[in-house]
Structure formats: structure tokens, C-alpha cells
Amino acid sequence: MEELFDRVFHLKENHTDARTEIIAGITTFMTMAYILIVNPSILSATGMDKGALVTTTALASALGTLFMAVFANYPFALAPGMGLNAYFAYTVVLQMGYTWQVALAAVFVEGLVFILLSLTNIREAIFNAIPLTLKRAISVGIGLFIAFIGLLNAKIVVANPATKVSLYSFTKAVADGTFHSVGITVVIALIGILFTGFLIIKNIRGNILFGILGTWILGMIAEASGLYIPDPKLGTFSVFPNLSAGLAAFIPLNPLPVWGKMDFSSVFSLDFFAVIFAFLFVDLFDTLGTLIGVASKSNMLDEKGRLPHIKGALMADSVATCTGALMGTSTVTTFVESAAGVAEGGRTGLTAVTVSVLFLLSLFLSPFFMAIPAFATAPALIVVGFLMFSSVNKIDMDDLSEAIPAYIAIIAMPFCYSISEGISFGVISYTILNVLTRHTDRISALMYILTILFIGKYIML
């Protein structure tokens, strides 16, 4: 078997062995398996069938990761991207008013465009056109946006007519008798945030997944003891898996409610173009950043700092986006959690194949994924937000013509409740401020074009 793996994945050439690769794959899966819980939770807010999303998330992740092994022989894993799924659900569908079927069509078109970019050198042109400061700011802004969504899902932050948003009131919950149905879940979520943070500080592999599971177990203890009382009228449900169907409960859930449901009726509208561009923009830079960042930690870059076979990796990512849309999920992209497997010694596609197999096995555990409540996944969103926010320390705050546009892009995302608005504001402000301060050497022709397009969008609103 070792010889077969060596012939297929070139193990010796990459100074690794089958055992190391398989352990690396298991490690990567442990760090990113939370997507099986969080992605259905986020996308189901659009009205999509949550059970179908569990199956689709697993299949799209398995297939996308397999593409990476076949096209590039790299140890990187793919799944529906965090931030992109939030943009899909909360901005495109809930804020802009598109149906989730139209949003899937946008993801599919974005994937097709990305395939064309991956076959040419255009991706380098786009990558070089956007200033590095804005690339980092986008990651930071998405981190804050995701964290805000987590706070809302956990009901730690709630709507308030007077102040727009405010902290959850335990006093009010006790007074109106909702503490044991809602208030206690807020307490559990707060504990979950601290628990997940502790696991990250201790550098425990699978920290986000274990944070979700730990919070969920605490919820089950609370329900079993009577401290937590589910009330469907208040949007709180039992946290115990429904196994009443016996062995049938472990049959993968039917994905057909979301498969092949794309709607291209709005494909020629300006807003649809903006949606596609936002998907493409975030996916493009997130993928390139992840590939380069993870590869640099494992000495996979060449002497010029380039990643060999990057075209194959980008092709895997773009094809996975198209197939993911066909299956019924948001943009499938390369996960930065792949760094965990690389740190364990993963160097080839055998690591990716291992991850792919584990995603397929997860299909038979859907009753458990369906039972995990929003207050258990909220800590993961908040902590993932922190991990994305950490890019802020790479922004040069001393150069104000760079820092201010980055700041505008960052704050626009959570405050406008839109990733695309943050991108638009960042590009516009960067171009205008650097022109006014005579730093035109920083601005490419493509940046001028993007600025004009974004300004035109606001004029036509």
C-alpha cells in the first residue's frame, strides 16, 4: 500500500510517508469539521432546508478537497467558506432581498469566472491591482461581521428600538419567565466563548470543534437537569439528537431540496454583478492568501516565493465552487485550517484524500449535527471572527493614507451589515485619498475602474 501511495502522491519526493499524511488529514478534519455544523446553521437562515444542507456541506467539502488532491497533489482541504456563507445568507438574501436560488446562481457564475481566471494570468493582475492593505482589511472586516452574527445568534446582543442594539437583559428574562428557555442559553454561549478561547490559547488541535461540542454538552446537561426548557415559540428546541427512527436516523439526509435549484433570472442586473464580484473578490484573495500563507509555513514555496502548481490549486478551488453551487451551498474555498495538517507533516494530496474520506463518513452522523443549537455554534463564529481579525496587526497604521481606507473597509462591514459595502467603501476611499495625497503610484488602472464602478452603483441606488 505504501508503494501505491508513493506512486500516486510522490510521498518520498515530498519527504513524507503514508502514516504522516493520514495523521495530517485527520488533524485537518478535526480543525475544520465545525463547518458541518456552522454552515447549515448560517445558510438555513435563508429558508434553505437545514437537513439537506448538512448532507450538501459534507459532499461539497469531500468533493472539493478531492479536487485539490487530483489537480495539485497538495494537502489543502476545501469546504464552504466562512464569511462567504455569511455574505450569501445575511447580505445577498436577507438584506438585498434575493432568493437563495438566485444567490446560488451567483456563486455558480463566480465559479465559472474563477475557472477562466485560473486558466489565464488575469488572477495575478487582479491580485496585484488591489493594495495589500485592503486585502488584509477585508479579512479583518469579515472577522468582525462574523463575530457580530455570532453575538446575535447567541442573543448576547439583541435589537433595541432605542439604542438599535443592546446586551441581553437577564433581569427582564427573569421577570417575563423566559430565562430558562432563552436566558440560560445566553449564559451557556458566554461560557462556550471562554471555553473555546481557552482551547485556542492552549493550542489544542480541533479547538473550535471541541468548543462547539463542549458548549453543546453543557446545553444537554442543562436540559437534562431542567435548567434549560426548550420552547419552540421562542425559537429554542431540544438539544438532544432525535434517534426515534432507529437505524434509519443515520441514513444521510436527503439533499434534493437544495440540489440544482439555481435561478438565473437576475443574471443581467447591476446588483447581480455586484454580488458576483463580491463573491469573486473575497474568494480570490482568500484562496490566494490561504495557499501562500499555509505553504510558506511548510517550505513549499520556491526561491522566488511562488507556489508551484498554484494553477492546479486555483482550478480545484474554482471547480469546487461550481460543483458546490450545483449541490446547493455557498462558495467552496480552501480552508486556512489546512495549516494544522501541514504542521503535522502533511505535504501531498494523500492528506487531502484523508480529509475527503472523513467528510464522507460524517454523512452518517446527521442526527447529531441537526441537534446542535445556535447557542453552541455562536462561540465558533465569534472565535473564528477573532482569528480573521488578527490580520489587523499587519496593517501599517503609521501610513494614514493606507490605514484610513482600511479602517473604513473594516467598520463598514459590521455596521452596514454587508461585506460587499465594506469592499466598496474600502476601494473608493483608498483611491480618492491616495489621489488627494498624491500617492497615485499606489493605484493601478484596475483600481480606478473598480472605483468608478462602485461609485456608479451608489449613484444608481
TrEMBL record:
Family that this chain belongs to: Belongs to the nucleobase:cation symporter-2 (NCS2) (TC 2.A.40) family. Azg-like subfamily.
Topological type in the membrane: Multi-pass membrane protein
GO cellular component, one term: plasma membrane
Membrane-traversing stretches: 20-39, 51-78, 98-117, 137-158, 178-201, 208-229, 272-294, 314-336, 348-365, 372-392, 404-431, 443-460
A single MF term (Gene Ontology): purine nucleobase transmembrane transporter activity
InterPro entries referenced in this protein's UniProt entry, alphabetically: Azg-like, Azg-like_bact_archaea, NCS2
Species, as recorded: Acidaminococcus intestini (strain RyC-MR95)
Protein's UniProt name: Permease
UniProt xrefs under PANTHER family: XANTHINE/URACIL PERMEASE C887.17-RELATED (PTHR43337), XANTHINE_URACIL PERMEASE C887.17-RELATED (PTHR43337:SF1)
Keywords: Cell membrane, Membrane, Transmembrane, Transmembrane helix, Transport
The UniProt record lists the keyword Cell membrane: yes
Pfam families linked: Xan_ur_permease
Protein localization: Cell membrane
Keyword field contains NADP: no
